[in-house]
Amino acid sequence: MEENVDKDVKTILIVDDEQPIIDVLMYNLKKEGYNIIEANDGITAVNKALDEKPDLMLLDIMLPKLDGLSVCKRVKNSLNIPIIMLTAKDGEIDKILGLELGADDYITKPFSVRELVARVKANLRKVDAVSNPQYVQEQQPVATNKKENKIKVGDLELDLDKFEVKVRNEIIDLTLREFEVLKFLAMQPGQVVTREVLLEKVWGYEYYGDIRTVDVTVRRIREKIEKDTSAPKILITKRGVGYYVKGEEN
Question: pTM of the prediction?
């Protein structure tokens, strides 16, 4: 007999080939009120994700049949859900957050269950916030044209209703996380924002996570919006401090 799952309860797909890890995560996430489904290999993970459409995926990199990076790419092609990658290799981070992949977050093994649960909550909160019609209004900067609900800074234009970015009138395909980073900076052009503030405000972490997450995401955005990433004209680095979107006067 199938378990009757409340439609308001968030569903998390845990993908790992080590059953003890799944069991620990399942126990702790169920305590937080989440519905859990699981998969032990990459092929099953893709099939379950597409069939059951979870709200978030915890995805190990090292999987049988199909590796986690390939799973992430396939799922992201069909579903716009947060994916948190689990990795035992520190050097995999650039690949996880690479241009072609679109993973939202990562955490390295061995990890604190408390930290992982916090990241799950942060990623789900962000999705809820963005899907809430009040969110766009509350986040709207003074410089935005209220009628059109857009932010325009130089060659950059963000449509907050469509979650669409244009650079020199060309539509740029950004992930939700990339859009949020660019929007946060564009709302205050010329103002340098530290990596820690971006991590807190955009990722929603209530603690300082790994700031490399911010650096890699910014690099990914630049690959899409800049003509020359070695000499960016829109998204600028203030060495040793953080990032800003270049305003009309700076």
Answer: 0.64
- CA–CA separation, 111 and 196 (whole Å): 20
Distance of CA 166 to the CA centre of its chain: 20
Q: Determine if the peptide bond prior to 54 is cis (ω within 30°).
A: no
Let me know: does 166 contact 157? Beta carbons within 8 Å. Answer: yes
With contact defined as beta carbons under 8 Å apart, do 123 and 56 qualify? yes
Edge-to-edge order in the sheet of strand 164-167: 150-153, 156-159, 164-167, 170-172
Give tens-digit pLDDT for 91-104. 666 666 654 566 77
List the beta strands (DSSP E) in 28-130.
35-39, 56-60, 83-87, 105-108
Count CB atoms within 10 A of the CB of residue 177: 22
d(CA 208, CA 194): 12
DSSP string, 146-185: TTTTEEEETTEEEETTTTEEEETTEEE---HHHHHHHHHH
pLDDT given for residue 1 in this prediction: 39
Per residue in 105-160, pLDDT (tens digit) is: 888 888 888 888 988 988 888 777 666 645 444 444 444 444 568 899 988 999 88
The DSSP code for 90 is G
Nearest to 174 by CA among 135, 133, 218: 218
